[in-house]
Structure to design on (293 residues):
């Protein structure tokens, strides 16, 4: 059996592994294919593609866009994106500015609570264009302001806690369109975490291609539920560990195993999408199954 892990974060967002570390761990886990899905960026994809090609692991370029639908935050995975697509790069640059400003707002909230953290400490630790709450939490641990990441989230950073700041997001429908025009497939990430199944018909209407049925935080029953949903709406099935590095001392990469036949269906859907595109947009260099995209 061949397996894939199509949900991974690197140092280009809130993960702690480099793209090269991800590629070598994918190889040692025996994964046939992986995708890099950093939050609101595709910046790590070039390095991951090179490292995966060297390791003999198929690589699919990806991202995890922070979007919004009906007032709820919703994460959309984009696969097979052209990492040079101009509109995509413009949109994600805006999301990154929003993220950077939000770090400053969260730090200001913390300061009001007499937590002496500076935005500079967070940016230095994050060292990427797409900083997020995990970087704030890590900076707080590093400065000795909390004992661990859980404490940072539970006391300050979780939604509804005093240093939580909402972020402005693109609508899910616009994000699906953005992914499509960049040559990608749009997949709803970890629906079991949102538990807002009512949005799925709207997203399907907006052109959603797939649903992430297998995820670290999906128990078997939840995966089974979304496999049924995928069948009902004729959606592609994806899955991944959502590895952000070491979690309680262990890497999650490879712990969620997407059977490879689903990856083949993704390739087929991508091909069909390109073939049926009315305005011809060239296939990104490297092509499918070349192990580089
Ligand atoms: P942000 O994109 O800045 O809103 O941060 C969201 C990220 O924070 C998620 O992708 C997870 O990596 C992480 N996260 C969310 N909730 C928690 C939590 N309770 N404990 C640790 N990490 C979390
Ligand atoms: Fe994350
Ligand atoms: Fe997510
Ligand atoms: Zn993720």
């Amino acid at each position: 059996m061949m397996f894939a892990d199509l949900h991974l974060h690197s140092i280009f967002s809130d993960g702690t592994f480099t793209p090269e570390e991800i590629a070598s761990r994918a190889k040692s886990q025996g994964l046939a294919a992986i995708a890099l899905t950093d939050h609101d960026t595709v910046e790590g994809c070039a390095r991951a593609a090179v490292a995966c090609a060297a390791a003999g692991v198929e690589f699919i370029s990806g991202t995890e866009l922070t979007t919004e639908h009906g007032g709820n935050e919703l994460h959309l995975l984009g696969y097979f994106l052209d990492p040079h697509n101009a509109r995509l790069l413009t949109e994600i640059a805006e999301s990154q500015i929003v993220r950077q400003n939000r770090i400053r707002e969260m730090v200001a909230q913390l300061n009001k609570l007499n937590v002496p953290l500076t935005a500079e400490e967070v940016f230095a630790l994050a060292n990427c264009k797409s900083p997020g709450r995990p970087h704030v939490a890590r900076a707080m641990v590093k400065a000795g302001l909390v004992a661990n990441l859980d404490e940072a989230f539970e006391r300050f950073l979780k939604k509804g806690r005093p240093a939580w700041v909402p972020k402005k997001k693109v609508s899910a429908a616009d994000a699906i369109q953005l992914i499509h025009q960049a040559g990608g497939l749009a997949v709803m990430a970890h629906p079991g975490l949102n538990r807002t199944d009512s949005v799925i018909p709207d997203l399907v209407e907006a052109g959603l291609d797939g649903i992430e049925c297998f995820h670290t935080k999906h128990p078997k029953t939840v995966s089974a539920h979304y496999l049924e949903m995928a069948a009902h709406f004729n959606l592609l099935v994806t899955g991944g560990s959502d590895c952000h590095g070491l979690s309680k001392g262990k890497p999650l990469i490879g712990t969620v195993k997407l059977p490879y036949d689903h990856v083949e269906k993704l390739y087929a859907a991508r091909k069909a999408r390109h073939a049926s595109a009315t305005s011809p947009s060239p296939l990104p260099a490297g092509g499918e199954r070349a192990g580089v995209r």
User: Anything to note?
Assistant: DSSP finds eleven helices and eleven strands in the chain. The two ends are 22 Å apart (CA to CA).
